[in-house]
Specification:
By secondary structure, the chain is an alpha+beta fold. 28% of the residues lie in helices and 28% in strands. It is built from 13 helices and 32 strands. The strands form seven sheets. An eight-stranded mixed sheet has the order 20-19-18-17-23-22-21-24. Strands 1, 2, 3, 4 and 10 form a five-stranded mixed sheet that branches. A hairpin with a 7-residue loop joins strand 29 and strand 30. The longest helix has 53 residues.
Length: 737
């Protein structure tokens, strides 16, 4: 019975030597806070004031057993709760998965300086994304504890705006009450509770004090089938076990297939509803803002601005009538045509090439002409007159022994083209830069991080300096290189803190910017400050370092450096959040740092090399990539998983932005085993997603959509291209456009 199990558990407190392996726990040090609670059979009370009954323990099919226990160690309280399932239904497993997601999401908020109300808000937000129908059943999120089991002023609810402080102890408890299985109609409830110490000494900001596993595989138990008690059974024990095992496997496979079919149907229904909502949003946006028809609008330029010389008298005196001459100052090439020098601005030259034929050197100049296709069209290419006569190509040949002029001209043209290209790019970068506000320096100095490296590099060599927090922004300065970079808080779009662990040899602080700023002579939309805590290279000539004393000492030093720098960056992160909130007129300008969820990380190729891609609360990041890969989830309109066919070990995923003027972003070579976890992740974020057997021609598809955005919205939006029930699905798989 429940009472008997409770008495047995309470008896353990009288003789801790039986279960305390260390032998350091004295009987006088520990006592129970309340009688251990065992609940089953449909009667569940998730309140802290719940009482015990004497009913029999329910161990039948779809039984749910809730266990809760509180203990005092030297007068300080702790609490623990777990829920166990016997032959659970699919619905029970799914709801427990939601409870686990809420637990993991809220756990990240438990750290010094976090508001208590944010824990509750995070729980509600996670439930809304995962399964909104569970909101009325939610019970949480616990309370603070210490010498008193329940601190009345530290209840973890939405109305409590106090900040957590280092040294606080929390009973973090969440659960779902008054649930009823749809298939069997059996009532049940579930609860998870753990005791956490809020501390700044840990990189996560908290320490778990009740280490008991809570994963589904640890709390769910399934039987091996009903035993046949007929004594006249002809099969012996081994044959019976084999038969039961065979039928059990068939039953489990059948249940697995049915569960997968039901989940696929539910997911398809959700995606259709989500696609219709997006279609309605797009139609409302078009009705409000009008149809954007300038996706491919070409930039106009006044080609009359290109004027190398006012008259022939301005030609350089060094130029000869029968030779090519490169005028660096005027950015012009003087070409001899019929013994007359004709000027061509360097921007009108499309390509220049040279080759040797039979001892002769041949130099070819290809010019930009109207209606010519280019990979990148700059101002000068647009400057080509559309209503004038033009020269498409000029060829010059010099015999052996007279190559000097053509050789010199070839390298001069190449160098001049490079200079002009860099100058145009730098000019465009500066023109697109938004001027930041002036940094307000914090008197007495704010939080600092020293000996940091920075990406992108600000000089040709590696720059190290100090990052300091001020009233309205951050300043990175390097006295050795004479560098000073200011980053205003208002210009920070996302801030990411990534600690060093087994997956990373660096501890990083990454800032994604709203508007790009200049880093040296180039503009950048991100800054990444980091410290290498582990050597990225290792001497392979002396074998493994694990078998010698020096290697062990080196490993211990690396672990010490990791802990030290993780704590330094963690403390700096918290100080930046405090300073930004304190001196900001708008309280919403507080810098909130994203932290990676490495449990659902996956490998992929967003750029040129395979990296580990990690989701955060609002981003998808790969900070190891060059340049760092950062995708804002709120900007994504659609995700399509391509090449999801039998026999392939990898697939690709493409993200389409809500801003259709942006090109879709693809991540390739993702392991096939990560497909289900990625779909579940996209589902929790309410991102519309589809699977395709073949790759999609995104360039052609997006051009078709941009040509008539209103027609795209009226024809069903993405449902018109990717709906699995579409009759034309077979023809669309090869090329949806």
């Amino acid at each position: 019975s429940h009472q008997k199990l409770s008495d047995d558990a309470a008896e353990c407190f009288n003789d801790p030597i039986k279960w305390d392996k260390s032998g350091n726990l004295a009987p006088d040090d520990i006592e129970i806070c309340y009688d251990p609670l065992i609940m089953s059979g449909g009667r569940y009370d998730l309140k802290a004031s719940a009482t015990l009954d004497d009913k029999k323990l329910d161990t039948g099919k779809e039984a749910v057993i809730l266990c809760r226990m509180g203990a005092r160690y030297r007068s300080f309280c702790s609490n623990l709760a777990r829920t166990y399932f016997i032959e659970p239904s699919v619905e029970m497993e799914k709801n427990y998965g939601v409870l686990t997601q809420v637990f993991l999401a809220c756990k990240k908020i438990i750290q010094p300086q976090s508001k208590i109300s944010k824990i509750y808000e995070t729980a509600l937000g996670t439930i809304k994304r995962a399964n909104r129908s569970l909101l009325p059943h939610f019970v949480g999120c616990g309370f603070g504890m210490g010498l008193e089991f329940r601190e009345k002023n530290l209840v973890l609810n939405q109305k409590n705006h106090q900040q957590l402080k280092s040294g606080m102890v929390l009973n973090f408890s969440i659960g779902f009450k008054d649930l009823k299985d749809r298939k069997s109609g059996k009532p049940y409830a579930m609860q998870i509770a753990d005791t956490y110490l809020v501390t700044s000494e840990e990189a996560d900001g908290h320490k778990l004090l009740t280490v008991v596993r809570r994963g589904w595989e640890n709390v769910a138990f399934r039987g091996n089938g009903d035993e046949d008690e007929d004594e006249d059974e002809e099969l012996d024990t081994k044959q019976q076990a084999a038969t039961l095992s065979h039928y059990e496997r068939r039953r489990q496979n059948r249940e697995k297939e049915e569960r997968a079919t039901r989940e696929a149907a539910v997911r398809e229904k959700e995606m259709r509803q989500l696609a219709k909502r997006k279609q309605e949003e797009l139609l409302r946006r078009l009705a409000k803002d009008g149809v954007q028809d300038n996706f491919n609008e070409e930039k106009k330029f006044d080609y009359s601005k290109i004027n190398s010389y006012k008259s022939v008298s301005d030609f350089p005196s060094q130029a000869r009538p029968n030779q090519l001459y490169v005028d660096i100052r005027k950015e012009t090439i003087l070409v001899p045509i019929f013994k007359q020098l004709v000027p061509f601005h360097i921007s009108t030259i499309r390509t220049v090439s040279k080759q040797e034929e039979g001892g002769n050197l041949i130099l070819r100049l290809n010019f930009a002409t109207p209606n010519m296709k280019f990979k990148s069209r700059n101002d000068y290419i647009h400057a080509v007159p559309q209503n004038k006569h033009f020269i498409q190509e000029l060829t010059f040949k010099a015999p052996a022994g007279h190559h000097d002029n053509l050789e010199r001209s070839y390298f001069g043209i190449q160098e001049l083209r490079k200079r002009v290209k860099n100058r145009i790019k730098e000019k465009e970068d500066k023109r697109s830069i938004v001027v930041q506000k002036e940094l307000r320096v914090l008197r007495g100095g704010g939080a600092k991080l020293r000996d940091l490296s920075v990406r992108p590099p600000l000089t040709r060599r590696k720059s190290t300096g100090v990052l300091e927090a001020h009233q309205n922004g951050l300043r990175f300065s390097s006295h050795r290189d004479g560098i000073k970079i200011d980053i205003i808080y208002e210009n920070i779009k996302h801030a990411v803190f990534q600690k060093a662990d087994n997956m990373s040899t660096e501890v990083r602080m990454h800032f994604e910017l709203v508007n790009p700023i200049m880093a040296g002579k180039k503009k950048t939309n991100f800054f990444q400050f980091y410290v290498e805590v582990v050597q990225s290279s290792q001497d392979l000539g002396h074998g493994s370092r694990w078998h010698d004393r020096d290697g062990v000492l080196e490993e211990q030093e690396e672990k010490r450096r990791k802990r030290r720098y993780n704590k330094l960056f963690f403390d700096f992160k918290n100080r930046v959040s405090q300073i930004s909130e304190k001196f900001s007129k708008d309280r919403d300008m507080k810098i909130e740092y994203e932290e990676p969820f490495k449990q659902i990380a996956f490998k992929g190729v967003p750029g040129k090399e395979q990296v580990s891609i990690i989701p955060t609360q609002n981003l998808l990041i790969a900070l190891d990539d060059k340049p760092p890969f950062v995708l804002t989830i709120d900007e994504v309109d659609l995700a399509v998983m391509e090449r999801c066919r039998f026999g392939l070990r990898e697939f690709d995923i493409t993200f389409v932005f809500k801003d259709f003027s942006k090109a879709p972003l693809s991540i390739s070579a993702i392991p096939k085993k990560k497909l289900d976890s990625i779909k579940n992740w996209l589902r929790t974020l309410n991102i519309l997603h589809y699977e395709r057997r073949d790759a999609v021609n995104w360039k052609k598809l997006m051009n078709t959509i941009r040509e008539d955005l209103k027609l795209f919205a009226e024809n069903g939006g993405w449902l018109g291209y990717f709906d699995p029930q579409n009759d034309d699905d077979e023809s669309d798989e090869e090329d949806p456009a």
